[in-house]
Every structure is written in C-alpha cells, then in structure tokens.
Design goal:
Keywords: Signal. The structure is a single chain. The chain has 3 helices and 7 strands; from the N terminus they run E-E-H-E-E-E-E-H-E-H. By secondary structure, the chain is α+β, with helices and mostly antiparallel strands. It has one domain: TATA-Binding Protein, CATH 3.30.310. The longest helix is centred in the last third of the chain and has 27 residues. The protein is globular. It starts with a strand and ends in a 5-residue tail after the last helix.
Length: about 130
C-alpha cells in the first residue's frame, strides 16, 4: 500500500499507541468486525471473515502499511480506509505533539518534508467518507 518515512521514532511507544487505537476500532462498524494483534514490529488488524488483514510495520526508517490477503472481501475493502485513516490521523497527532504541547524530542514520531508528503499522499489514496 504505502510507506511513511520518519525523521525520528520511538518504536515501542508508537507500536503500543497504534495497538491501542486498533483495539478501539475492533467493533467498527459492527461488533467483532476487526481483530487487532500487536506484533514485535507493529500491529496487524484482521477482518473477521479472514479474507484480509492490514499490517502496520514500524521501523527506524518508516511506518509501512500493507494489505495481506489475495482476495479481500468487499466488506473488508469498504472498511479498510476507515481504519487506515484513523491510524494515520493518530500518527499525525503524535507527530504534531498534541498541537505543539509536547516537545519534538519527546514525540513518538516526527516527519521531515518527505514524510509529511507521504502522509498526505496516503490520505489521498483512501476512499472518501469511509
């Protein structure tokens, strides 16, 4: 799908935070729609029919979003954008430091111009109003 290059990253903190966001999305749009699983290098969110999953891998180079599954079901495809959008918005909030309240050195993730451009491009690829 896409990679968001990072300037700085606190891998464990970002992984935990994105895992908590994914846990909060498990019942969206219906109860049990998603199953979130924290991995050593990120988080994976499985669709309940097993047809596909969204993998978010965190490294010192960037955050890689990948779709797993050869033939994702239509319900998965319709709901994937909403989950990706929520994860991207959370990352954006972490990078902006809660409106500048958190000093840059203490932020979970920061982006340079390339990272911000990749973030905007990724958001533009998502289904609108998902």
């Amino acid at each position: 799908m896409f990679n968001i290059p990072v300037k700085t990253i606190k891998k464990a903190g970002l992984r935990l935070s994105l895992s908590l966001v994914a846990l909060g999305l498990q019942n969206t749009p219906v109860q049990g729609a998603w199953i979130a699983q924290q991995e050593d290098d990120g988080v994976t969110v499985f669709w309940n029919d097993g047809s596909a999953a969204l993998s978010v891998k965190i490294s010192y180079l960037g955050v890689l979003f990948t779709r797993m599954g050869e033939e994702p079901s239509l319900p998965y495809q319709l709901n994937e954008s909403a989950v990706v959008r929520e994860l991207l918005e959370e990352m954006e909030g972490f990078a902006k430091g809660d409106g500048g309240v958190v000093e840059e050195a203490n932020r979970l993730v920061t982006f340079d111009e390339e990272g911000w451009a990749a973030m905007e491009k990724a958001k533009g690829m998502l289904i609108k109003d998902a």
